[in-house]
């Protein structure tokens, strides 16, 4: 067999932590296209069910849906979209909230708690944070969300309200 020259191994840089990638995406529109922000809040006892699902992506796609036991609390944004400027503003609020540096853990909640799941993702890398979404339930359980989670959630609630044409979508 003839001698073949072996190529020198190439150095593959380690993947950037998600927080660093998202911060860089504030200045890099191409990087921003692959960022996804979502929040799902669900729970409630019988007759008090509530579901809020809000998603936005750097490619301009968005989704918002709210269903609840009370008919006046139901809405859905069909074929929603988000402008680059609006997504950039949301992303900046997420970065400024500090949630990307918060520890991720799945806390325990009592049954019927409205539980929020806030996610920021980029190409398979995900920061997922759980929180008690109803302030009264959170206070009763001694599980008030950390300030950085509350600030990030407020940014997504605001987007959800805007997409659904509501003043507020908070539980």
Task: Write a brief structural summary.
With 171 residues, the chain is an alpha+beta fold.
**Could you tell me the mean pLDDT?**
90
The CATH first-level class comes to Alpha Beta
What class do helices, strands and sheet pairing give? alpha+beta
Rough shape? globular
List low-confidence stretches: none
Give the second-level CATH assignment, the architecture.
Answer: 2-Layer Sandwich
CATH homology group: Mago nashi
- Helix-strand topology string: HHEEEEHEEHH
Count of spatially separate domains: 1
Strand order of the largest sheet: 4-3-2-1-5-6
Helix content: 25-40%
Query: In total, how many beta strands?
Result: 6
Q: What summary fits the major beta sheet?
A: 6 strands, antiparallel
Strand content: 25-35%
**Cα end-to-end separation:** 72 Å
Rg over C-alpha atoms, rounded to the nearest angstrom: 19 Å
SS field, number of helical segments: 5
């Amino acid at each position: 067999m003839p001698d073949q020259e072996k190529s020198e191994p190439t150095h593959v840089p380690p993947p950037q932590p998600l927080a660093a990638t998202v911060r860089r995406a504030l200045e890099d529109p191409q990087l921003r296209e692959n960022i996804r922000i979502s929040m799902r809040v669900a729970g409630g006892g019988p007759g008090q069910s509530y579901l809020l699902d809000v998603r936005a992506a750097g490619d301009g796609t968005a989704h918002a849906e709210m269903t609840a036991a009370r008919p006046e609390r139901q809405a859905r944004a069909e074929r929603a979209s988000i402008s680059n400027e609006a997504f950039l503003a949301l992303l900046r609020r997420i970065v400024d909230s500090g949630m990307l540096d918060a520890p991720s853990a799945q806390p325990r909640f009592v049954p019927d708690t409205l539980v929020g799941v806030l996610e920021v993702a980029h190409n398979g890398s995900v920061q997922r944070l759980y929180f008690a979404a109803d302030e009264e339930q959170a206070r009763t359980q001694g599980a008030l969300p950390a300030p950085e989670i509350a600030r990030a959630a407020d940014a997504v609630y605001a987007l959800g309200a805007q997409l659904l044409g509501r003043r507020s979508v908070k539980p």
